[in-house]
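Chapter review. Work through the record for Sulfotransferase before attempting the end-of-chapter questions.
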Amino acid sequence: MVAVASPKLRKEQESKELKIFVVTVTGILLVLAGLFFGLSLGKRRQGSRSSGQGFKLLPTPSKTAREEWPPLSAVYDGQKVISDPQFLLDFAIIGFEKSGSSTFMQWLGAHPQVQCFQEEIYDLYQNKTGAMVWRLHTQLKPGFEYKRGYKSPGDIFLANTIHLLDEYFPKTRLILSLRHPILYYQSIYNFRIQNLPNPDDPFHTPLEGIGECKNTYPGYVCTNHANYAQYIYRLGKTLSRFPTETEQAIIDEKPRSAAKARVTRNLIFVVEISQLKDDNALRRQQLKEDLRDFLGLDSDLPDEIPKVVPGKKWPADVQAIKDKRKMNICEDQYIPLREDIMRVSKQTATWILESFIQSDDVFVSTPEFFEQSIKKWMEDPCETKTLRAASK
Ligand SMILES: *[C@@H]1O[C@H](CO)[C@@H](O)[C@H](O)[C@H]1NC(C)=O
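Structure tokens for Sulfotransferase:
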């Protein structure tokens, strides 16, 4: 139906249409402004949630306020963390076992500006953030002049622990030390035997450790743990939509584990254990300086890198029984075991060089030497006679 209107009526109608137009446009603009405001608010809220589960963040301490060390009651109410605990934790040595983490604990701990627990701390590993905050506050010397840290080489195996570090301590600097997977396996297996409370307590054989870790014995040793990339991947430093072929293989091998990967904010310093044993004076100096800068220390770390041999001590007769149960991974009976480890070794080495250390959040000292050390993982060290004799 078409209405034919008089000129006056048309004019009235036109002005009415104009009014409707203006009102509509204003309305749309208001809605858009509201959406924009709401979204940016939501985003900000999300930001503060991910940086600490929705609790109120402490204001960034000013120069003078910095001198006042907050009391325990400002961060912990006896059950849970009630404000930003970041100031309590500057670094964490989160892995891997038998790869130099004790050396780091002692070496860093010997610096006058460092407060580092000289035993392993499992609070975050056990999902007890409150206990961690309590411990850091009450068991280490107070004061902003110190850099505080702990070591727990199993942390890297638990996605939850990695997420807690990012959530509560995003500025905490992480240290990861690595070792040839074949040597790692032998070392961790023999360490478990060494620490069994009684010399003939049952434990699985080295060959039974091929594949998944089982929970039939505490501290079960398995070749899966030697595929470091499976765990390091979950720090979320390489989450690109276009993974390399190797990264895709790592994801496909354990998709449920890989799905726990999340972007984390912590910076990471990664070393290969050869760097801690390096005789080259220039490279050692470089390592010391790089670590000093990474940790924000005012002076160098001690020259002497401690040589640590952890493990319980026993009387000679007990030790003899234990020695008999220990493995020499270069023996022929372990060829299937070494084949399995070499597969993961090549995969993990490739991924570390191709993907992990390419991240801006990951720091390496003397990269050429690091690369050279990681590339040795492409070979089975038992194929060199020297190790065959030495690893007895
Ligand atoms: C860790 O603790 C929190 C809070 O108590 C809980 O919600 C969460 O499920 C726990 N996570 C794990 C993996 O145990």
